[in-house]
Amino acid sequence: MAQKIKKDTARPQLKAIEGYKDRPRPVMLNIDYYKNNPLIHRDRRLSQSASEWVRSFACEDLKPLIVCRGPIRKEAMDVYEEMGITHYGILLSEKDSIVYPNALAPELRKLTDSTRVHRVPDYSGASKEERVERINQIIQTARDNGYDSVFAGYGFMAEDEEFVAAIEKAGLKFIGPCAATQASAGKKDEAKRTALSVNVSVTPGINNVTARTLLKKHPGREQLLALVKAEGLACDEKVLKDKKVSLETLADHILFASYAKGIDLFSVEELCAQVQADVAEMFKQNPQSRIRLKAIGGGGGKGQRILGASLLTAKNPSDAQIAKAAADSPGMVREILNEVKATGIGDNKNVLIELNIEQTRHNEIQLLGNGEWCVSLGGRDCSLQMHEQKLLEVSVTQEGLAAAIEKAKADGCKDEARVLESDLRVLKRMEEDAARFGQAVGLDSASTFECIVDRDRYYFMEVNTRIQVEHRVTELCYSLKFTNPDDPSDYFIVESLVEAMALLARHKKRLPKPERLTRFNAAAEARLNATDASLSPHGPSPSKARSVMTRESAW
To answer: Is 197 contained in some domain?
Structure first.
């Protein structure tokens, strides 16, 4: 819908790039607000800057292949064109082919050059063999068509360590966190171990049920070493000989060697039995609580199940009640593994067993790093959900909370001010811990540090090593100022995380640590979910409708 908005006729985007402040008087123009939203769209061509230093960060020679669908694909196309990137392409899958005959997608209306539209049956394949084949097809498509990088949006491929490693091995750039970061932060069990190592509080539970399953079958060090020899596993001799290494750590090390070889060391039935036993013990230790089972991979609410609702009102549950509640575990484990496609021989089938923290808020911190520095960009509250799918994402920023506290005090609302002050302290801790975590894993792109907040406490849950659906909530609150270390007056501004990811993929450690600048104190994103009459999910994916708060005061 076309609306009248103010537009600076003197190319304000380029002036912003070069740090100019003086602008001529704006005039009124009729423009298509959807295609030319000044909060989202701008000229991002650093090559046009008067500064030699700024021009050195141009990305016009980047040649990305976009391997994802949905709004993020169209957004990436828009941002790349605004950056001056002309050689980009998109990869369609079978799902796109089914949808497009009925509704011509905006991407295809925009990209009319058929030589830049490529096809595969699907992105990830139905089996492990198909997955490897699909990765090779994507790499070959990139090579055959002159692409030097791959962007996977917020789909599963964006967090697939094997996919990212293959991209890097092929000599291509991955526009997102590198394979090493995916390994140490992308898997939920490894992320929790890393968090504990840097003094970040985590959700109580069991992170290594697969190691416990292996120890149930091979309970001693000698038995484990015999297993290594019998299966011919390529393990680190130092780890095998170090008697100070705990049995669970040794079991984990052996399991990773089995994944590399592509074999299983226990059955799914044995895993399910161990999960059931651990769940029963957690019910005993935490009366009137539910337990969440969670796959170490996946996202978007997939690969999660909650059990124990029948025990919420039982102050002193009997052994029979606990056994009945825990008996649901095996079926749930199988559902989880099927959902995240971790059922193949040699797949890592670890499942997290966590205490379900009731009546909490779901907060996440946006991170950005280049492998040496890591910055936090405020938080987002994603507590309003249905079927594990987010419905409303609202910004949580220090500036917004500070403004709200000041207003509450001025209005004489002491209780409100006290609660907001507690929220501000929690947010500051989360941002500090998130940045420390990002530094520990060498984060070299965009990721999200996810937490659950319980009043004045918070627990780390996981890291999403990709851009999020709701990333524009953060973009509307903060921009990034990259300044020449030798000249404080020489800088450029980045307002898009997709743009920042491309810059990092192209220039990595050359980029100086940016300063975050406040754009607006608050922003929000709402999703319109397709459901059936019972409000159960119905349709391929949620639609997005964005609502922006642009007042200088919070809320």
So the answer is: no
